[in-house]
Design a protein that fits this description.
The complex is a heterodimer.
Chain A (H helix, E strand, L loop, with lengths): L1 H5 L1 H18 L11 E11 L4 E9 L11 E9 L2 H12 L2 E3 L5 E4 L1 H4 L3 H10 L8 E5 L3 H6 L1 E2 L5 H8 L2 H6 L7 H9 L4 E12 L20 E13 L2 E6 L1 H11 L6 E6 L2 E17 L3 E15 L5 H6 L4 H25 L6 H8 L1 H7 L3 H4 L1 E10 L2
Parallel strand pairs in A: 1-4, 1-5, 5-6, 6-8, 7-9, 13-14
Antiparallel strand pairs in A: 1-2, 2-3, 8-9, 9-10, 11-12, 12-13
Chain B lengths: L5 H11 L8 H9 L4 H21 L6 H9 L1 H33 L11 H12 L5 H24 L14 H12 L5 H5 L12 H27 L9 H4 L5 H6 L3 H31 L2 H22 L4 H11 L3 H13 L10
Helix pairs in contact in B: 1-7, 1-10, 2-8, 3-8, 3-10, 3-16, 4-5, 5-13, 5-14, 6-13, 6-14, 7-13, 13-14
Classes of the chains: A alpha/beta, B mainly alpha.
Chain lengths: 388, 357
């Protein structure tokens, strides 16, 4: 008996351990069955009269009998007073539990970005399971339409749009890419500015038809296939879209960030068009006393092609003449000037110079923060070199 | 009695103690001290370095904490003070435990899981509490290299994405930001107090005190570096990133193609943290055992009771973690300096028993 009581604590401990182990291993760990899960690939957010409309592109696993690869998807649209209401509506209307872990793209509709865009992103910023490295874009028209459109180049429109933001596209200097995190940093920082790629879609004639089978005895519904472009850049101040950079200004912006490699731009020689390839790019924008913004840009180019017939010696020589260099410099400086004027006019501190001032000196920032952009004068330093 | 080797103490101070400061603390500091988050951290690291030095110097006398208390204040008062310190360690255990629980539930699951997914930890905690503290020297031998590898991996993957200019201008949060930051961080800096129950269990060798202080300082420097990188990555949105060390490495370019390889390092650090988080609980149980003896009978009972208590608290406070944080960083933060800053130097003046001829 005494022996029994001597070992009682250990026996009780083992009993408790067994009970807790039973409780632990008898639950499902909160996991949701994959069949009841909606894996959201992309989300489009629009403004409605009531509040918000969320169009979610949900990946649907293809059956094994299908011979085609890729990702098929369905688009579900839901409305609510907040984005969270929309997500809940998707759940209640479909029974699918929406998961944002794989959401790599959020598109804001044109009406949404006219107001404070962060109100539309608030849900995504708060969501612990939403990757903040998710790409962000604004679009012409409704984001829901863009997400629901039939892409000419991919099974899912979101995957086609994401291709526009690949590393290669960024290096070409034709598009900007912005993540949810970067946009939020710009918005909550002292500059209160930001930018997003602006996506447009256009119809593609003569492309593949929608692969959906026609109803029995009926006529196949032909959905126009779309292609997308994001060469323009939407400018934001205090979360509202205040301007739009043209493709040329977008290129200048990327060149000033020094990110371009193998991108092309046009120049002229004796009134004839030539295309130059950027083989090396260096650029930065710095704040000087005044306040003055120094926009320094340096590119090394090689001749990509001429718009007119050229003799074979010219092809072999691959020479960028002084005239082309001069014209290229003028062209790029023109783009930079236009870029600066546009940003200044719409009050978007796209280069985060106000933030640079804040970081350099609190005292100077306090003295100059009022109408900072309005008083900012630019100095352009543009340099174009030939590769040979 | 088996003692903890000096090497093991140094490994704990340099590699395991810093791990506990990499989860919620950076975001909490970014909330109150903004870009000046490094200053309150630096203050705590310096103060704790001095406190660690004092505790390790007291370890030279090779006398247990309770024995020192009993010899100085008498048997009953000594036991009472040991119980008070034990209660403090139980209190100090709550924050890292709930922090770890929320970390696991948020980072390792892609939907909000049941509170029971963390319950196995309490089995582990009950087990470690029942073991003698001195047996954990070997655990530190194993966990410290894992923690170091985890930290180095995460730091290397994260550093390239940080804009350290975001830490400027220094002093933007002002004195208010600094003091609020220092107060908020108190709950995370109780490492010297964690060493106090180990008095008499550490094998003291010449120079351990200053070597320990240097190791703690090195670990603190790692925490400072990480906090700087963390703020450099998230800047004004850092306050939103509750689980710092799981959030910084994902912007490494290779992650896009290889997937979340940073989780390997996150798991390594989490493993080391599991032992660190249980240490205040262990210390608390050990203080009671030091005071009342009967280790064989009391250790499993107290270990189970501590595990059950914290399991109950984890269930009860599952939706009140914000309130717990407020209590620890705004209301009862002052308790920590009393036990973690004032007590360690006092250990040096406590009387040890006279040696009988």
């Amino acid at each position: 008996m005494r022996k029994f009581f001597r070992h009682l604590p250990m026996k009780l401990w083992l009993l408790l351990l067994g009970l807790v182990a039973f409780a632990f291993f008898s639950n499902d760990f909160g996991l949701v069955d994959i069949q009841k899960t909606a894996i959201i690939l992309a989300a489009g957010v629009d403004k409605t009269e009531e509040g918000f409309a969320l169009t979610a592109q949900i990946a649907v696993p293809k059956g094994s009998d299908r011979t085609t690869g890729g990702t098929s998807s369905v688009e579900i649209r839901a409305e609510g007073k907040t984005v969270s209401d929309c997500v809940t509506a998707i759940f209640t209307e479909t029974g699918w539990v929406p998961k944002l872990v794989f959401c790599n793209l959020i598109v804001l509709g044109e009406n949404a970005v006219k107001e404070d865009a962060v109100a539309y992103l608030n849900y995504f910023l708060r969501n612990d399971y939403m990757p903040d490295s998710c790409l962000l874009a604004a679009c012409a028209g409704e984001a829901g339409e863009l997400i629901s459109s039939v892409s000419a180049i991919d099974d899912a429109s979101s995957l086609a749009i994401e291709k526009l933001f690949s590393d290669a596209a960024v290096k070409s200097g034709r598009v900007v890419t912005v993540t949810l995190k970067d946009f939020a940093i710009g918005y909550y920082g002292v500059s209160k500015s930001g930018y997003l790629p602006f996506v447009r879609m256009t119809g593609q004639r003569g492309g593949q038809n929608d692969s959906a089978a026609p109803p029995a005895g009926g006529v196949a519904e032909e959905k126009e296939q779309k292609v997308y472009s994001a060469e323009e850049t939407a400018l934001f101040s205090e979360g509202r879209m205040v301007g739009l950079l043209s493709p040329e200004e977008t290129l200048a912006f990327n060149l000033l960030k020094g990110k371009v490699f193998a991108g092309t731009f046009g120049a002229e020689e004796q009134g004839e068009p030539v295309t130059l390839t950027v083989v090396k790019n260096d650029g930065h924008v710095s704040l000087k006393k005044g306040p003055t913004a120094e926009l320094s840009l340096s590119v090394t180019v090689r001749l990509c092609c001429r718009g007119v017939t050229a003799p074979v010696e010219d092809v072999a020589a691959d020479k960028v003449t002084e005239e082309i260099v001069k014209n290229a410099r003028e062209t790029l400086q023109g783009y930079c000037e236009k870029l600066f004027t546009t940003c200044k006019a719409c009050g978007c501190d796209v280069f985060f110079l106000k933030r640079a001032l804040y970081r350099s000196s609190l005292k100077e920032y306090a003295a100059e923060k009022e109408d900072f952009l309005g008083r900012l004068e630019p100095v352009f330093k543009t340099e174009v070199r030939s590769m040979r | 009695m088996k003692k903890i080797a000096p090497r093991q103490v140094l490994l704990f101070l340099a590699c395991i103690a810093p791990a506990g400061k990499l989860v919620l603390l950076p975001a909490r500091l970014a909330d109150v001290a903004k870009n000046d988050l490094l200053f309150p951290l630096l203050l705590h690291i310096c103060v704790q370095t001095a406190a660690v030095f004092c505790v390790l110097l007291a370890a030279k006398r090779e006398t247990g904490f309770c024995e020192l208390l009993e010899n100085t204040f008498g048997k009953i008062a000594g036991k009472g003070l040991a119980l008070l310190f034990s209660a403090f360690l139980l209190f100090a255990a709550l924050l890292p435990l709930l922090e770890q629980k929320h970390f696991v539930q948020s980072v390792f699951y892609d939907t909000l899981p049941s509170v029971f997914v963390f319950s196995s930890y309490f089995l582990f905690a009950a087990f470690v509490c029942a073991k003698p503290l001195s047996s954990f020297g070997r655990v530190w031998d194993i966990a410290a290299p894992l923690a170091a590898a985890g930290f180095i991996g995460i730091f290397l993957l994260s550093a390239g994405s940080a804009d350290l200019a975001a830490l400027a201008p220094a002093g933007a949060a002002g004195a208010k930001g600094f003091f609020r930051g220092a107060a908020s961080a108190c709950g995370w800096f109780c490492d010297a107090a964690l060493l106090v129950p180990l008095l008499g269990k550490i094998e003291y060798k010449k120079g351990l005190a200053w070597k320990g202080a240097l190791c703690y300082l090195a670990g603190g420097a790692a925490v400072l570096l990480f906090a700087a990188v963390f703020y450099g990555i998230y800047q004004e949105t850092a306050v939103n990133q509750l689980f710092a060390f799981a959030a910084t490495a994902k912007y490494f370019p290779g992650v896009t193609t290889l997937g979340r390889i940073d989780y390997i390092f996150t798991f390594l650090l989490s493993l080391a943290m599991a032992f660190y988080v249980s240490l205040p609980m262990q210390g608390s149980v050990d203080c009671v055992l030091q005071a009342f003896g009967r280790r064989k009978v009391l250790a499993p009972i107290l270990g189970t009771a501590a595990g059950a208590l914290f399991f109950g608290l984890a269930l009860a406070l599952d939706y009140r973690f914000g309130d717990v944080l407020t209590v620890f960083s705004e209301t009862l933060f002052w308790i920590f300096p009393v036990f973690c800053t004032v007590l360690p130097p006092l250990c040096l003046v406590l009387r040890r028993p006279r040696k009988h001829a």
